[in-house]
Design brief:
Layout (H helix, E strand, L loop, with lengths): L12 H15 L11 H8 L3 H13 L3 E4 L3 E4 L4 H8 L7 H25 L2 H18 L5 H19 L2 H16 L7 H19 L3 H12 L6
Antiparallel strand pairs: 1-2
């Protein structure tokens, strides 16, 4: 273990302590479930008080890097990027520019999923995408509730992510979809439902034909203007 600490002299003690402990974790080779040095030892190595160390560890625990338990010390946690993204997304800038950029990010994830699905998925997996598109269309032709339309829309997009076979891609996209749903950024008026239904059918047809270029182009038209509707 070659990592080491430097005595802290800066005014912002907590931020500096947090940064040094984080760097120590990343560079020392310490692994998940292993313990950090105790608070007193860390305070001595950094030349600061124990309360400052405790607050620094609290910040690291908030982002999921460590877990502190009474009488058990502080252990390293396996960092889950999806959980981290989900935890902090509600606190990010929530203006229209950010929402548009988040939609573009979702489009990148879903077009990537389309390319993976077209290249690797079984015909049965692709058929589930078609089934989900048809199910949304049937609901759009009825007086289905707002909640049911949201659910049907989500099922269609999940089917694409499932066919891609990439759990991380699926889970990251799920966080974004849930964010839009919670903030009512995707509205399903009757006219919009019909437009969405037709786009789902077209996307599914292109995927079934394993035509990634067409499917990705349709997905862009489908998602990019969506938060502005």
């Amino acid at each position: 273990m070659n990592a080491s600490f430097t005595k802290i002299t800066k005014k912002n003690l907590v931020s500096e302590a947090t940064e040094q402990i984080r760097n120590f974790i990343l560079s020392s080779g310490i692994r998940p479930d292993e313990k950090l040095p105790g608070e007193l030892e860390l305070a001595s190595m950094l030349g600061i008080s124990r309360p400052v160390i405790r607050e620094a560890l609290g910040r690291l625990q908030y982002v999921g890097l460590v877990e502190s338990r009474k009488n058990r010390g502080t252990t390293i946690q396996k960092l889950n990027l999806v959980d981290l993204f989900e935890t902090h997304l509600p606190f990010l800038t929530n203006d229209q520019t950010f929402q548009d950029e988040l939609t573009e990010f979702r489009w990148i994830l879903e077009t990537g999923a389309i390319e993976l699905a077209v290249s690797n998925a079984s015909n049965d997996a692709l058929a589930k995408i078609k089934e989900a598109a048809e199910a949304y269309k049937r609901k759009s032709e009825k007086k289905s509730t707002h909640e049911k339309m949201h659910s049907a829309d989500t099922i269609f997009h999940i089917a694409i992510l499932e066919a891609a076979g990439n759990k991380f891609l699926r889970d990251m996209n799920g966080v974004i979809v849930n964010h839009f749903r919670q903030h009512e950024l995707v509205l399903h008026s009757r006219k919009h439902r019909q437009e969405v239904a037709m786009m789902h059918i077209k996307i599914a047809a292109a995927i079934m034909e394993r035509n990634a270029v067409t499917a990705c182009g349709l997905m862009k038209k489908h998602l990019i203007p969506e938060v502005k509707k």
